[in-house]
Amino acid sequence: MEDNYNFLRFVPIFADLDDPVIDKILKLGMRKNFKKDSIVFFENEPDTALFVIVEGQVKVSRVSDDGKEVILTILAESDFFGEMAILDGSNRSANVTAMTDTDMFIIQRSDFLNLLQEHPEVAVSLLVELAHRLRSADMKIKSLSLKDAEGKVATVILQLADDVGKIKNGTVEIERLPFQHDLANMAGTSRETISRTLHAFAKKGLVELTGSNLKILNYEKFKETYLS
Ligand code: CMP
C-alpha cells in the first residue's frame, strides 16, 4: 500500500469515518510485524484484540482431533480479524497464522468497543461484513457436503477470488495462489485432486495458471457454473 498512514481508509468498517476519528484510531492502536509462518494466535486463547492487516496475508484455520488442518479462510490487506472474541467475550474461535511477512495494526478490545458505541456506523459496517462471512461459510458447508471434487475446488477458487482476487474486464486474478496442500485443506480434498482439477480447468479454458497466479477467464460464467 502506497500511503501507510492512510491504510485505515481502505478497511471497509472504517472507510466512512472523518479524518479526526481516523487519527484517533491510529493513536489508539499499534503496529506489529509477524514473520512468514509465525502464529498470530491459537484457537482457544483468551486474547481479545482486533487485528487489521496493513500488508500481507494470514490463514484462519482449525485443527481436528486427528491433527488435520482445515483452512476456514485467507485474509489479506485491509481485512480485519479477531472481532468474534471481542463481541462475545469468548476465547479465540480459530488459529491465525501469517502466510507471508505481515504488517498488522492492533486495537485493544475496550478501545474497539468504545469506538462501536461512539460511531454506530462502524457497528453497521461490521454487521455487513459478518453477514458476508456467514454467507461465505454457508457456501462452504454446501460445497463440502454436496459437491463433487470439481465443485469443491471451484468453490475454493471462488472464495479466494472474493477474498483476495483482482477484477479486470470480466476476469479475476488471484496472485500468489496458496500452496496446493493449503488449497486441499480449504477444499476438504487431497493435494493430488487439487492439482488434477486445476489442470482440468486450465485445459477447458476456464482458468489460466502462470506460476503461482491463477486467472479465472470468465468470472461470471465460472460462478454460474459452479455456484448453483
Ligand atoms: P476470533 O474468534 O476472535 O479469532 C479468530 C478469528 O478468525 C475470528 O475472531 C474471526 O475474525 C476470524 N474467523 C473465524 N472464522 C472465520 C470464517 N469462517 N471466516 C472469516 N473469518 C473467520
Strand content: 15-25%
Task: Name the CATH class of the largest domain.
Answer: Mainly Beta
What helical percentage do the residues reach?
40-55%
Radius of gyration: 18 Å
Order of helices and strands: HEEEEEEHEEHHHEEHHEEH
Ranges where pLDDT stays below 50 over 5 or more residues in a row are none
CATH superfamily of the largest domain: Jelly Rolls
Strand order of the largest sheet: 1-8-3-6
Per DSSP E runs of 2 or more residues, the count of β-strands stands at 12
Count the helices. How many?
Answer: 8
- Helix-and-strand structural type: alpha+beta
Shape: globular
Describe the main β-sheet briefly. Answer: 4 strands, antiparallel
Span between termini: 36 Å
Mean pLDDT: 91
CATH architecture heading of the largest domain:
Sandwich
Number of domains: 2
Q: What are the bound molecules?
A: adenosine-3',5'-cyclic-monophosphate
Q: What is the CATH topology descriptor of the largest domain?
A: Jelly Rolls
